[in-house]
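Notes on consecutive records. When two proteins share a document, each keeps its own sequence and its own token line. Never mix them. Below: protein one.
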Amino acid sequence: MTTLGILHPGSMGAAVAAQARHSGAEVLWCPVGRSASSKARAERYGLTPVRTLSEMIERADIILSLCPPAVAEDMARHVAACSYARIYVDGNAVSPATMANISAIVQQAGATAVDGSVIGSPPSDSKSPRLYLSGPADALPPVSRLFEGSAVQARALSGGIGQASALKLSYSSYQKASRALAAVAYALAADHGVEGELLDIAEGRTTSYLAETAYFPKTAARSWRWGPEMKEAAHALREAGLPPDLAEAAATVMERWAGLKDASPDLTLVLDELHRGPQGEPI
């Protein structure tokens, strides 16, 4: 039986890791320093608690890191410091250059790094995200087999470290920046009392984020994670010689929503926060 360790079971990490149980894997997590909500999620998904990170390192055949991108390198350092020497999958939304750094960190301890990216919503009875994998060819099949028969579709990419990360940020730089831009456009229209007309225009098209005002609060509540991801996207664009300005601007917009972390704000509050600076002061 394969043993998977998950760092750390947030809403995406817990749901994805739990899908490995369909293949018979045991899924470990470490409750030390984690919130009550993380503990509740882990219990709901049937994850097995361990006393320390060192115990997870000792027992896990594969470790999956799914955390905010800003701390992805730190997570790799913590694992490397415990001399982990098996398969380390970084599934975070980081740039190819950041992924290369993570790979170097865990390889120094003897581990094999796999570049991963999750595209889609957390897996459920109705949702089936894709887990893209790239890196050493012999390390990808064991990771893919973890999710056989589950709601997670594991897909291997040709090429090495950086391919999965590049795919993730190529997609999210549009998908998430456009959500933020739609909210800003709606806020401008609302300030001038023409939001109804704006929606009428948007709804006349086949698809438009502008017509999905109910999603603005969800975007705001997730911006504490999406903002750093946009900075990584800007990094990736800059590395490729492409203009990073839109991704950087989206990150700046999302910083204004930082105080709404994992909240359930109404649309009025979301729009009000767009009129405030990074420290919450009115502009």
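Protein two starts on the next line and is unrelated to protein one.
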Amino acid sequence: MTSRANLLRMRRLAQAIDGEREAAPADVARRLLAVQAQDFAAGCWALAVRTTGATRADVLADLDAGRIVRSWPMRGTLHFVPPKDLRWMLGITTARMLAGLTARHRQLELESGDFARARDLVVAALSGGRSIGRAELMELWEDAGIATAGQRGYHLIYFLAQTGVLCWGPTLRTQQALVLLDEWAPTTRHLEPDEAWGEFLLRYLQGHGPATIKDFVWWTKGTVAGAKTGLAVLGDAVTTLEVDGVSYLVTAELADRAASTPQSRRERDAVELLPAFDEYLLGYQDRRAVLDDEHFERIVPGGNGVFQPTIVARGRVVGTWRRPAGDGTVDLQPFEPLTASQERAAARSAEAYRRFAV
């Protein structure tokens, strides 16, 4: 049996929120394996906040250099991922993702021939290291007689990303351009199915643990059978702990690190300003350890699925924040008044965000 406070400390250590942080955004992507990035700006801050001081320009530089790619490796949600890991992730998630879209493709009158023609056109257009923006790709397909209206274009891109043809790569204007995955990330790891499940679970726990089997299955939109296969592959690399009657998985390395590293006062008093859709909250099916039910409406107003940026203190979500347009100040909206030490820590985090955003 361990305390909830110890559980939250281990999660903060795993996610590089408190304690030792990573040197570069690409290191964060490797550590967490996949970082929520459906909101591009928020995803960039999610990478930077876990480093020793990376700016937005540093994040974009890692994207432009191909050290991080963006795709839909799981749950139909865009994530930043390390390029060498994307293919094996798709290898165990794509079939389930596409099977769930059969009815939608029928509604959109998208057939196998449409996907094949769209693929041939984009491969011809991008071969040789070229890239293309979303709007330009829509125009390319329309000119060739492939309708893209009514979400058809989105589903064509999604299908080609799921099947390993495309990924989002170098920055373009305020977003990213599409590139051929074979050219942008030519080196890849080949993992057998059981080995891939083991790697998936290990990497999830290294960057998100402690967590439950249900958390992992939700995060990957995989299967309980796959999770159990991964657990069997990992053997003694993973152990369990119990908090409030719930059994959590944790890597032996993280458990040892937390036990052997004294908690500093700065770590204990830290207040972090995390972005919208951050992995610290969205990386788990059960979020009660970090967020009280009574405050959920403040994080997702109206239950519309749009998660607000959060203030985190001692591992708990204690409020929301925003940066008003045209104003350099960060507007903190805590659920309850912060203590004097928390206000000072929040001010340091706000300054870190301002340096990032410049």
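For the record: The chain has 18 helices and eleven strands.
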